[in-house]
Batch of 2 targets.
Target 1
Amino acid sequence: PSVQHKGSDIPRYVRVNTLKTTVEDVIDYLKREGYSYHGTDLCSVSGKVFMRDLHFRDILVFSAKMDFHDHFLYKAGHIILQDKASCLPAYLLDPPVGGHVIDACAAPGNKTSHLAAIMKNKGKLFAFDLDAKRLSTMSTLLLRAGVTCHRLANEDFLKVDPLSPAYKDVKHILLDPSCSGSGMVCLHDGSSEEQEQEPERLKALATFQLRCLNHALKFPKLQRLVYSTCSIHPQENEEVVSLCLEKNPDFRLIHLLPEWPERGQDPLTECLRASTTKTFTHGFFVAMLVRQATPNTESS
Ligand code: SAM
């Protein structure tokens, strides 16, 4: 793995919650509070200077020291404090307004609220998580964010029946399963113990991730799936995706965002990676799988 920056080197990203406000209104509000807005001109953000992200129009970029946890816009759910890399999955999945979508491992729900914003709160957003405590945090977050199209379930995604009538119209799935978190730079003290990331633990995580991915591809109407982790380990990323594709020849990878500066490791260059050094974010991985042919409905 490449050299890890400290979390304090990464800018602070803010996603504007378009269910509650607009980017323009947030910019105006902050300007009235004495912040200085630099559009998308490349500038070094410091103090109260901020800019718009170059890739995503709903993301604003601030200096690393900025903390919005006590800010009105955050408490009112107008802004979501979410790293830019972790905004990739929902942006790329891009579910349609009114669609039926599954967020398989959803808590605490930042990606769920992002999906809901893209869906304009219309349709059905089924969100699962095993951890009841994380789900209760998620409920609070979704309420604050004004999300209403979701159905939360404290369920093991691996036990959700893909053939249940409830999911017959699900065409989009976001799968962001538990991972080693090795891309989350602020959580790391760089100790050799952490660097090693015990091989057994990684193996167990990769097995779980592959099971989730194979399971997700069983939903009969699925057209598009985004798989993401905040891990920098190929075992949890490219290797999981390669093994899944071997088993599921109906699906193929989509070449994501040609303008993005960091690709998945060879030969999975269709996928994206993110890092402190190349994308100025936490370490992250994203793959998008699509079904090659329309499902055979003749037998049903
Ligand atoms: N997508 C979330 C977000 O953006 O806020 C973060 C998800 S976190 C990386 C992984 C989540 O998967 C955890 O909340 C964990 O409780 C949940 N999880 C682990 N095993 C699961 C399973 N078998 N079924 C459903 N959720 C599971």
Target 2
Amino acid sequence: MIDAHILPDAETGTVPATPPVIRREDYKAPDWLVPEIALDFRLDAERTEVTARLYVERNGDHDRPLVLDGEELDLLFASVDGDPVEVAPEGGRLILPLDGAKHVVETRVAIAPARNSQLMGLYASGGLLCTQCEAEGFRRITFFPDRPDILSRYAVRMEADKTLYPVLLSNGDPVANGEAGEGRHWAQWNDPFPKPCYLFALVAGDLACNADSFTTMSGREVRLGIWVREEDLPATRHAMAALRNSMAWDERVYGREYDLDVFNIVAVSDFNFGAMENKGLNIFNSRYILVDPDTATDLDYDAVEGVVAHEYFHNWSGNRVTCRDWFQLSLKEGLTVYRDQCFSADMGSEPVKRIEDVRLLRAGQFPEDAGPLAHPVRPESYMEISNFYTATVYNKGAEVIRMMAQILGPEGFRKGTDLYFARHDGQAVTCEDFVRAMEEGGGVDLTQFRLWYSQAGTPRVAATMIHDPEHRRVTLTLSQSIPDTPGQANKKPMVLPLRTALFDRQSGQRREERLLMLTGAEQSFTFEGMTSAPVLSINRGFSAPVIVDAPRTQDELAFLSAHDDDPFARYEAMQQLMVNALTEGVASGELETGAVIEAIRTSATDPSLDDAFVAEAIRLPSEAYIGDQMLVVDPQGIHDAREAMQQAIGAALEPLWRDLHQRTARPAFSLEAGDKGARKLRNVVLSYIAASGAEDAAALAFAQFDGAHNMTERQGALGVLANGMSAERERALAAFYDRYHGNALVLDKWFQTQALACHPDTVEIVRALGRHSDFTLTNPNRVRSLYGAFAANQWAFHSGGAGEGYRLLADLILALDPINPQTAARMVPPLGRWRRFDVERGGRMRAELERIVAQPKLSRDVMEQASKSLA
Ligand code: 0A1
Ligand code: ZN
């Protein structure tokens, strides 16, 4: 069958230069509904036959045919109401004129899972057969109207070789199984909940199960299973605990109970994204399930907890209430990310979680919102929906929900979500439906707030403060502006909830905290009873996802970094202090280090702060973040300034670092919060010792590497060594490889650490690693661990005078595109940032994008990203 991501033009048979654009405003309700579907799989990696019986019903009064989507399907047979029909797919789709109101349409197709390198539809991964259908993968399994507003009840029968595939799983509840002769067996699964086809899933393989159970709030017993290779069973314990905690949390916080008798999770090695919330059968990238102290860092443990929760929470926010069309993706993703963020905050440290989430937003979403791929949380159009699983839809979408929760308050927000779930259970709905439920449940008017869904770009807030000693009054004037983004100019002022407080400089006391609602282009707020000019603490807790320009001296920022009682604001003051020193250092060539060193000393010696927070507070902002604050990014200048700052901090406070390095050592591993915090701080401290230039630094790092009883400290030390040029660097990398090369997830870390290194030869090292016998284009984790990390390494990626880094990435994109277009497309945005760099670098980046779009058989995925990046 034709390859639908390069769909030939129906008239000419040529590949269109740019793929067609799908628009939100063109949404039409489906012509035909499919309330029931029966699927029968004869599974085989080389050739699987799929028989689908669709019970279709005409939707409304019309005479349009039934149109079934299909992609790379070999049609073997079709019938309508039992009568065979002669029909050939047109542009991949099957078009069937039907007379009556209800019909039974049956098709049989053949597909080839073993040759499915896109990892969409039914594919083979490490001896397993598994599926990925979101967003439009179901059409690669069978002919079906592949859109999320068609909800069907699924009955699934699978038959497969009993030795190769002893375990057969699908959505819903298992109802029967048996022998099929000739060494084959079968299983039947029925899912009583109508669902869109993107939530369909099937897994067949030789899997072992970590089995547990959970009693729901109404007393129902749910069987839980995490299915992995036998040898990986011990590494599923943390995921199981996270699942049980998520189930209890969703009952307690949102009143949401699980609804089936079984809940299964399967871990697979080859997966395009993180995980997938298929009804009752979540499928995970194994990196978000398998953790043990020897192979996983604390960040990995936290990611497992967060992603398990995320997928579980989708059972309500996504599955029971789903999306009408893909423009509404943030309806389920923004809400579910917000839910998983709150869950993780409850399981660990709320301030540290908030800092991590904001760092992620600033690293991934702010640049997206400021570049050629900027789009609203609810996009208006797309060429390939896979390209819209973005930081904007997910993370900015979560910030939008967080702001609503803040405006409504906890009770109002809960009333809003209760109303949303009750009103729309079993429906496919829109972001607008969600906002309306919030308005009604919370009793607020969100008319202007809706702009958060439609206007792209990160709002900027400028603050000025005037103190009038005579009237003991402070006037805070705030103005907002929203930058133009592709296709959007002259934007309207938005609703910006800004938690703000004023601090008395003398006493160190907080005078007042208010939630200021900035809704106009400019507004003034007054604070009475202020005898002296206070220090402004604004956007506390990062209450709005905006950039604030508030003129505060380094001295005031140092004051806030030591005295603000909002932990996020305290962290933020420190970051701003560091950013100011670094950007001024880049501009003037003279780095002022004193204020930063003193502020770091204050935080690092403050006994009231926990280690995890201190680790966040004292870390320098990344090179990329510093670049984001500049008009034109100067990768070399930033690198030099940051290294010099790191060195100055390392040297000035060396005794403190050595003391902390010892104090944070632990005799044994535990996941207890204090121990996790100690490990986090220990790694930051080690990097300062290394930066100090101390002679024994490499030896100390190697000792940490070699003696570590956990991966957090081992990888932390490896990262520190990888940045340098010591003999220990090579020894550690070789030892790490020898010890872990049999474990794919840890080997990813070996690739990633080298690609992230601040080392003058990183481009060459990455090029060589791309040819390493353990490197493969067919595994997305491996590709991301090498090239994704490299493109995020600002200094290395932009260093080569002739644009070597850009060429390396573009070569990768072109080589990967025919194998896995989704993963290839996700590598394009770093090149699309060309406007942020000097003319020479920008020109070279553009040239690579032009080389990409000139490629004759480009996928729709890469074509969209590369052509938009050039515009
Ligand atoms: N809905 C999933 C993300 C996801 C989307 C597409 C995929 O296809 C390759 C896979 C996963 C989530 O939010 O977790
Ligand atoms: Zn999700």
